[in-house]
Amino acid sequence: MSGAASRLAPHALLQDRAVAAYLGLAIGDALGATVEFMSTREIESEYGVHERMVGGGWLKLKPGQVTDDTTMALALGESILNSGGIDARSIAEAFDAWMRAKPVDIGNTVRRGLLAFRSTGVPAVPLSEHDAGNGAAMRVLPVALATLGQSEQGVREACRIQAHVTHHHPLSDAATECLALMVQAAVQGADLAQLLHRYAYPLAGEHPAFVFRTKQRRSNPSGYIVETVQAVFQALFDSDSFRGCLVDAVNRGGDADTTGAIAGMLAGALYGTAAIPGAWLKALDPAIRLACARQALALVAMSGMAEPAPAKV
Predict the structure, then answer these.
(1) Residue 14 belongs to what domain range?
(2) What is the CATH number of the domain that holds 75?
(3) SS (HEC) of the chain
(4) Is residue 52 domain-resident?
(5) Domain assignment present for 243
(6) pTM for this prediction
(7) Which of 56, 133, 134, 270 could form a disulfide with 186, with the two C-beta atoms 3.0–4.6 Å apart?
């Protein structure tokens, strides 16, 4: 913990880390989008080490522009705040409105799930072997913040409600729940070792597909949730700073916007706003930066864990 963070009151520390988690999500998304679908060799050839907010990539984004990882999270958060809880129909309607607004990108599983909701009116997809993507995990942050202080079982159930709007698979569920619980622990003061032993190792123990402590570096991770989690956990637990974690994550290539977003979410919750490089924060789309900060504080206030506070970013 930084000296500045250690001097914050408990509620202020929680708020700071919640805001940092949301900003980390957006920053990791924007940083990773530049090199999404590139291989590690291609990244090295073009950038050396990719560590600047330059935009571009296959989506031809502006510097600091985010993708579906961040905008879906914001849509989910607005649904939670407007409905006063984790409500499947409200979430599905919010996601449907988000898709109708023509986002810059949308995953195949998300699209399929939302088209099913449009045709059936049912805000949950059936169990499917094809739903082990990372779409439910990338957007789970608002649920983690809104359910602070609830029982672990309550948090897990809330995660599954939002996940099953588009993704319904045991590995997707397990990872999404684990990530939400890790965020909650980190914003409440858990350190890196505690996250490793309380959450990451148990996830891999219960679902061996997620084993990440191997000699193999998970490069070019796809949208498969197992590869996403392996890349994120390696980047998180083999670094000791917000910047180091994100640079490691996005330079692995592959689905780099999502690995960057999830890594940024965890690293932000762990290290706080003071650890976020100023150049990255300044480059982030100002409207997104403000929306993330405001929503983080509103969701934490909704949980009852802290009083409402103005966003200062």
Answers:
(1) 10-47+61-303
(2) 1.10.4080.10
(3) CCHHHHCCCHHHHHHHHHHHHHHHHHHHHHHHHCCCCCCHHHHHHHHCCCCCCCCECCCCECCCCCCHHHHHHHHHHHHHHHHCCCCHHHHHHHHHHHHHCCCCCCCHHHHHHHHHHHHHCCCCCCCCCCCCECHHHHCCHHHHHHCCCCCHHHHHHHHHHHHCCCCCCHHHHHHHHHHHHHHHHHHCCCCHHHHHHHHHHHHHHHCHHHCCCCCCCCCCCCCEHHHHHHHHHHHHHCCCCHHHHHHHHHCCCCCHHHHHHHHHHHHHHHHCHHHCCHHHHHHCCHHHHHHHHHHHHHHHHHHCCCCCCCCCC
(4) no
(5) yes
(6) 0.94
(7) 270
